[in-house]
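Let's practice the habit of predicting before peeking. Look at the sequence and jot down your guess about where helices and strands might fall. Then scroll down.
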Amino acid sequence: MRADEFRGRIGATVAESEPWFDEPPHPGEGAPNVVVVLLDDTGFAQLGCFGSEIDTPNIDALAADGLQFTNFHVTPLCSPTRASLLTGRAPHAVGMRAVSNFRTGFPNQLGHISNHASTVAEVLHDQGYATFCVGKWHLAPMEQCSAAGPFDQWPLARGFDRFYGFLEGETDQFHPELVSDNHPVDPPGRPEDGYHLSEDLVDQALRMIADSTGVRPDRPFFTYLAFGATHAPHQAPPAYLDKYRGRFDEGWDVVRERWFRRQLELGVIPPDTRLAPRNPGVEPWEELPDDQRRLAARLQEAFAAFLDHTDVQIGRLVDGLRRLGQLEDTILVVLADNGASQEGGPYGVLHEMKFFNGILETPAEAVARIDDIGGPRSHTNYPWGWAQCGNTPFRWYKQNTHEGGVHVPMVVHWPGGIDAAQRGTKRDQFAFVADIVPTLYDLLDIEPPAVRNGLEQLPVTGSSFAAALHDPAAPTTNPVQYFENAGSRAIIADGWKAVTKHAAGADYDTEPWELHHLAADPSETEDLAEREPERLQELIQLWWAEAERHGVLPLDDRTIELFGARFRPRSPHPPDRRYVYRPPMSPLPGQAGAAIGGRSFDLTAAVTHDPDAEGVLFATGTENAGLSLFVQAGRLVLDYNAFGDRTIVESDAEIPVGDVHVGIRLRRLDGFAGTATLTVAGRDAGHADLSLFMRMMSSIGPSIGADHGSAVSDRYVAPFPYGGTLHEIVIQASPDRYGDTAATTARAEMSRQ
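Done guessing? Here is the structure:
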């Protein structure tokens, strides 16, 4: 409080003065809590109440006691959806047209939410709400997500009182890279102890809520719980994996048809809806070789187990709210951020990083490790056929502006605010993700600020659908909605949709648009472009007008050019490619760590070695792929783990006691080959040829002086910290520009979004 804000009276003594106490803001008695649960890469059909046979009884129960929105839309990608969800504005307008990994130098892609677009957490916090963020963030530039910050776009700087989760686009569910508030932390358990991230997230969310309501029961809370599920890697506890054994052996054609029929019976799609044909690249199940079917069925089992397990955690959250006496007065929204993922390709993948290194693992090869699927030793994603099944009855997938990418499930549950007669009913009004925050402001009677912290705020452009919570016949409040991702575009207006699937490098002006009457053909099976060219042109012109209004331009289909390290001064990636790390240091995220994937590099460790000292000097990656340089039995050891194909080099002599430099030289050769040479005290001490010089080792970044997460090498148990004194690690990466390294990094990062 400044002196000029004081409202009492100050005299010479206390007796001659009158005290005054400023009161913090409070939303008023009876203000409801708000909980938003966000699922990742979950298609329209994948919840039980939206048609699937995957067990989701807890979400189904919320729908049965709340409202089920069957015409709800999002953006085709996670970061833009999250930016719209948290601000009530168009994603391009707030600087998030694509994933937060990108910064393009244009206002529509800042890599974070514009500070001129206050988040719902900031607005509710200013009103007196307690605010908690748990789970996936992915709304800050990734190279700013190390313990060095800056932290101005982390959750605590964007309106949240507490944060527990991960900042990247994905994480391993058994060995997650976790952050608590503004600092990295280790997971509280390991997979052998029964640890799984989704359970941990709900534990933390309930603890935050209980801490707040126990001390301040008068103060409502806003909780944003964004699961890593069901984004790849699809990982679940063994009991859930066992539960789905054999459940999908009939294949995607039979299952998709059955889910479609169930959707018609449930009324989540109109009765005259047609099932879209298979997407290009999806083959008839009966024509697939046996190994391909075995692999695909097992990958779908892992997805189903993952979703089932996540539903159980949502049930735990609801039970916890009920136990705390908060459920009745909580607006609970469950939704997905985009449609089912296409990143698994036509066959699905057991380990995504193999694909990004040019290793096309055939189904016949993958089935040799089929029992690893869904566990800690896999990084799986299912094939296109199951992804389209998850998007039933629609075409295409995540990343696309067709309905399969943008039409997702949403459930709203609010016992204290939804009339009992309306519970269990459906809403078919068109709504977009940016409409959620205006709806909350409407329900909470809050006016978002025009100016916050001295910054003029962008207008909230979403439309409240609060009336639809009470009236199933309420008119749609969002009559026009544009979509754009990497040049693919669409617009929905008055039941009609114009859409184009852009190919990178194609001419924006000449590539064809489709026209669909969604009111009669919600699955986009009939293209009316030739029949109604005038209507199509009107919609295309409307798209350009909306693009101008919401800051969509310039159109930009770059991906490769925007991923990977940007070497420049005053950044984590210096122009000379020389990195110096001095412990103790927190683990580094991949995009903030030394850029060594696919590059030749020298690594030198300065140590004071004790005769009995052992442990890791430097490690990057996981038990699935990576490299580790460590000391064991007096010798320097390199374990170069290329997807389980290990090259192990031991120094030919013991490390001298005292101050000494040890290290490795990795050299990239023609093709996929490379070499690794150990150095001890200035001389070469061991050498090996590498048949695969990995372009992309892992999505997990480096550790200094230990191996956090799952152990890269099976010769020790992580974290295996070095017992001597490690003074510094110096990495000198090659200045060469490898085009395939950039492309590999781009493909790998896109799979993580």
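How did you do? The two ends are 43 Å apart (CA to CA).
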